[in-house]
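Tokens for BING4 C-terminal domain-containing protein. Go.
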Amino acid sequence: METIPKPGSNVPPKKDRLQAKKKKPRRYWEQETTGTAAGASPGPPRKRKRNRELRPQKPKKNDTSKKFRISKKPRELKSPGPQRSLSGAQDPFAGPAPVSVEVVQKYCRIDKSKEVPHPKTKTRSRLVAAEAQEEETSVRAARSELLLAEEPGFLEGEDGEDTAKIRQADIVEAVDIASAAKHFDLNLRQFGPYRLNYSSTGRHLAFGGRRGHVAALDWVTKKLTCEINVMEAVRDVRFLHSEALLAVAQSRWLHVYDNQGIELHCVRRCDRVTRLEFLPFHFLLATASETGFLAYLDVSVGRIVAALNARAGRLSVMTQNPRNAVIHLGHSNGTVSLWSPAMKEPLAKILCHRGGVRAVAVDPTGTHMATSGLDHQLKLFDLRGTFQPLSARTLPQGAGHLAFSQRGLLAAGMGDVVNIWAGQGKASPPSLEQPYLTHRLSGHVHGLQFCPYEDVLGVGHTGGITSMLVPGAAEPNFDGLESNPYRSRKQRQEWEVKALLEKVPAELICLDPRALAEVDVISLEQAKKERAERLGYDPDATAPFQPKPKQKGRSSTASLVKRKRKVMDQEHRDKVRQSLEQQPQKQEKAKPTGARPSALDRFVR
């Protein structure tokens, strides 16, 4: 007899239904447990109960039982296994990316060959920490070189073709549309000749005409920022620390305008200015005048830092060394003088030409200087302490204006012709044998400057402004924290605040910037001597050894004298050992092979 199942007999009980309802889905990073029953949720891992019975209890204060110690063994550090992601996949490139040793050495700035003689323990630890930090910085810089996507290029002719015969029209047809738009001509014959200047970011261009025309524009988008006529002769224009301020050397005084063309300042102490140079890291505006004075104006506080008399007549040739911020002045007697606001006399004088100097330029590395004079000579000098000419070339017409690019190209303006010479690289001097490019203008050249971070050469002449394309002239990659051409107004304001906080004092300008990190031993010894004479004794002198008194009759007079003599002998031995180490070792005479030893060899010196 078949029994009819009762309704609801196959339905699980209420407790099991709640357990099935609370079951959570397993995530893909969770491993399935083998110990759980089929259909049951693994649940959270249970905490293991510690066996407190085996743990030794701390003795109480009133407990007189014997106390015992628990010896703790040092933990063994397990080597980290292969890193895995959330999905469980193993990283095929674990650890930091490998870096080439040659690339790291290119960014290393510490010379480990020079060792400090007998450093103290604290000094040695600081040197080790500084070397480790410098090594880490150089490795990071070498690893970030992968982010520099752009590479410098050059113009190469086909089948031995001379690149100097390639015209600007041919270059414009060969490049892309964006690069071709960078070549343009501004026909401004009414107010010429013109002087021009690019901003530090290379985005803005300012130019001023001899007849009072002053303008500033974003030359990439061709958007005019401001345009005014000062109704006075303009001899030079220069951007200050940003494109928002523009200094104009007018025939009488120095004026400062903003990017809207509004006059902000009129510096009457700088009168009859002929040339302007701005030192960006010192916030100094250097002015050369007809009266023969070189003045330094601190634009951050608005005061004259130094006014130096060059005693060489009218100053119309001036440039700066970007490496050490030293001003180079060219004079009519054929010399070039180097000036610093901390010295009233020139740091150095170089005899460059037999006639007057017409133009001076210094490359961005600060190692080479190019000069041209009335003797039609173009010379390259080494500024690394020797000041000797490296090469010279006689030009059919003397160069009136010179300019270096960021990668070491040299441009010279001779009448209405611009010649450009190239070298082997950034640090190598340009070769003056064969010109790299040549271009003829519609007027005589009155100003030259390469645009930063763009393969463009700006030329100011009597007919207006010309923008030339020079492949391989500029650095292809820029530092966004230092000079970002795409920065906004807010970013520019923040950069100005940081630059003011990092401002370098004018007193630190010198020929060799590395000398600031060294100790002036002569001045230090002189200061110590003057201090000892003023006080009557030397406070830094080592006190004589005084033995400590001992007990039980060991502090007798003979014992004290004996201990003093022992210390004095040890100091004397140390001095003798140091003097022997400093003396050059004498090479022993080589004995002839096959000679028998003699008893008289002990007397041979």
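The chain has eight helices and 28 strands.
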